[in-house]
Amino acid sequence: MTSTTNILPVDPLRVGKFIPSSSQLSSIEDWRLEPSCDSPDYKRLASAAAALRESNIPVAFPTETVYGLGADATRSDAVRGIYKAKQRPSDNPLIVHFASLAQLRSLLRPASDSAELHSNTADDGISPIYAPLIERFWPGPLTILLPLPKQSPLAPEVSAGLHTFGARIPRNALALALIQLADRPIAAPSANASTKPSPTAAEHVKDDLDGRIEIIIDGGPCDVGVESTVVDGLSSPPAILRPGGISLEQLRECPGWENCVIGYKDRAEGDGEDHGIGEGPRAPGMKYRHYSPKAPVILHEFGASMPTVEQLGGSLSEEKRSIGIIRAGTWPSGLGYVNLGDDLEDIARGLFSALRELDRKDVDVIFVEGIDESRGDVAAAIMNRLRKAAEVKVSD
């Protein structure tokens, strides 16, 4: 346990803003953050950045996907602080967040000079297969798998024994400003207790980690609501290892990714983990149960009949009387505590909050209406999370 956990509200508009460059190049280098150094918001963010540099206690901060729990990715003691606070298994690797492509290049090629780091044609240790993805989706909810550089400055706990690591540049002004101010690559999984639903608001982080960390940067609710898509361009064909904010269809529109395959297996297809027998997880979120509230979740796959009164009643013992229901567009609108609607983006943003809301209501069992995965990869990402959360899956 640590001292009291403090939520520090920070308005991104008072910290800085994105301003387009006058460059004609279509590159993520065209975006710069312009800080407003005298504002109280900026000073709060600067204090959190100092904690990332100097402390071994992780800092929670918002991204466009979910809230992250960050630590200096180059210091083992700091990275171990993430695993301790989350009670996360040590063989579950972490994603490293960067503020710019130049910062990532400096980690992969530390001997390169400044001009080369900012060049769009640099031999930077990033496989050319990723170039169209970086151009189109960074900053954004996409994580790419990269080989660890020789004499890697990353703490070994980041990669959890793998020869690769996940890298991402988030599209969130506070996240980018925090990483810039810390001047460190930041390892950051979701800022929840291990196995619990991912946090999409600062209050969710405090619910799980109160007393385990000291600082939560509150930048408001997250825009996307599910974690980043993780891709492996080092394999042939390239693969999605975790569905998320970027769809398979979007990836296949990029040169070299036309034959991208799905490299994960949902628990709807079997009870095994999302990797081969005898193999470790290739990316975060592939091995362990995730996203689970306190109450058991019964997932009705898309097309399955809604639960009958008898099924609802039969799900409870004599001592348990409270049922939570999450509907997603097909079940009658008067049914259930939480209505996510039928818009995919609304469902993605509201899913984890709905599970947490029913936890707060102290329900004994949660029934969830599944959605049609043919609607795209956001739908696939939602169902992937629900299957990992569910104890029982019902299909007709």
Automatic annotation (TrEMBL):
Key words, A-Z: ATP-binding, Cytoplasm, Nucleotide-binding, Nucleotidyltransferase, Transferase, tRNA processing
E.C. code: 2.7.7.87
KW Iron (keyword) present: no
GO molecular function: ATP binding; double-stranded RNA binding; L-threonylcarbamoyladenylate synthase; tRNA binding
Positions that bind ATP: 88, 92, 164, 190, 198, 242, 291
Summary of the function given for this chain in its UniProt record: Required for the formation of a threonylcarbamoyl group on adenosine at position 37 (t(6)A37) in tRNAs that read codons beginning with adenine. Likely catalyzes the conversion of L-threonine, HCO(3)(-)/CO(2) and ATP to give threonylcarbamoyl-AMP (TC-AMP) as the acyladenylate intermediate, with the release of diphosphate. Required for normal translation, by ensuring translation fidelity at the level of codon recognition, appropriate translation initiation selection and maintenance of reading frame. Also involved in telomere replication.
Protein family: Belongs to the SUA5 family.
Catalytic activity field: L-threonine + hydrogencarbonate + ATP = L-threonylcarbamoyladenylate + diphosphate + H2O
Protein name stated in the entry: Threonylcarbamoyl-AMP synthase
Record's GO cellular component terms: cytoplasm
Chain sites annotated for binding L-threonine: 65, 97, 168, 188, 228
Principal cellular location given in the protein's record: cytoplasm
Organism of origin: Rhizodiscina lignyota
Subcellular location(s) of the protein: Cytoplasm
